[in-house]
Amino acid sequence: MPTTVTSSARVFSALLLLGAGLLLPATASAQTLAKVKARGNVNCGVNPALPGFSARDAKGSWSGFDIDLCRALAAAIFNDPNKVQFTPLATSERLPALQADKVDVLSRNTTWTFSREAPLKLNFAAVTYYDGQGFLVRRSTNATSALELNGASICVQKDTTSELNVADFFRANNMKYQLVALAAADEVLKAYDSGKCTVVTSDTSQLFAARLVLGSPDEHIVLPDIISKEPLGPFVRSGDDQWLGIVKWTHFAMINAEELGVSSQTIDDALKSTKPDVRRLVGTEEKYGEQLGLTNDWVVRIIRHVGNYGEVFERNVGTGSRLAIPRGINSLWSSGGIQYAPPIR
Ligand SMILES: N[C@@H](CCC(=O)N[C@@H](CS)C(=O)NCC(=O)O)C(=O)O
What we know:
- There is one protein chain.
- This protein has helices at residues 2-28, 31-39, 65-78, 94-99, 161-172, 185-193, 204-213, 241-259, 267-270, 276-282, 288-292, 298-305, 309-316; strands spanning 42-46, 55-56, 62-63, 84-88, 105-106, 122-124, 129-131, 133-138, 152-157, 177-182, 199-203, 220-222, 230-232, 235-237.
- By secondary structure, it is an alpha/beta fold.
- The strands form 5 sheets. Strands 10-9-11-8-12 form a 5-stranded mixed beta sheet, with helices on both faces. The protein has a 3-stranded parallel beta sheet with strand order 4-1-5.
- Bound molecules: glutathione (GSH).
- The site of glutathione has 20 residues, from helix 5, strand 11 and strand 13.
């Protein structure tokens, strides 16, 4: 008899432990959304100044491609794209700031790499912009390819993937170079402007932005060579599946909306649509929003206030904008690009 009592007590305590084990991660995993709702805004870590991606006007109002992801999150959560607190972060402080809980999400032209996930206890949410590293030179150099840069002095920003890739590229091609590694973007441009280096290397999107900051943009060209893969997008802390889900599905919803022809102009028609895909997207069918901890009209809020992916791309960086970047591989998969989102169903 005592044996039975002991063993059932053991089974009971084992079940208790198992229960606690199952419960603990669940409670620990839903903190960010609750915190954001209690605070009344999304705290977004952003680039202090990168035209087209993240910039402040004279009145202090933020706009740009990376900014719109923050606004889309605020729209989904609060039905108000202005409920964002922007925290400008320098390149070297961006990942530590996210790790230290100083921001809820980092939306700052940051490349998804192996060493930025598990080792840093961070998760990459979704590729909002497929980029690649390139080179900016003066048009007067008549250079047509990066392979002509043997012996060049090259400016790069510290603590970036750019610094690592440029070393690989020159080593692989048996070329010499002199690296001028600087801490901030404006130092890089000043050094190039004053002749301390003849080349700037960075993500190509950032070189397009840099051309605008330099005195006469037409005097500078971005060489055609792309020497790396730079999948850019938002990061969150690991261990909060709900928050990771909200960030990644916000991007996927904007891609799916573009694919289905749902835009800020057509959102009211979409709400009357009989198409099953559209109905699931806008929440007139199923309850996907609630499953994320949001309301079922979460996508309607995003599209109404911010727009679909194509609208965000064109407005901030596309061919009609000052940056004039062709959509290229960031076109939808159905139009020859690689932007592809899993279905909402
Ligand atoms: N995508 C690359 C580069 C990102 C990066 O920080 N680029 C610099 C070069 S333009 C930048 O944004 N600087 C802005 C600043 O520090 O103000 C990475 O994740 O390492």
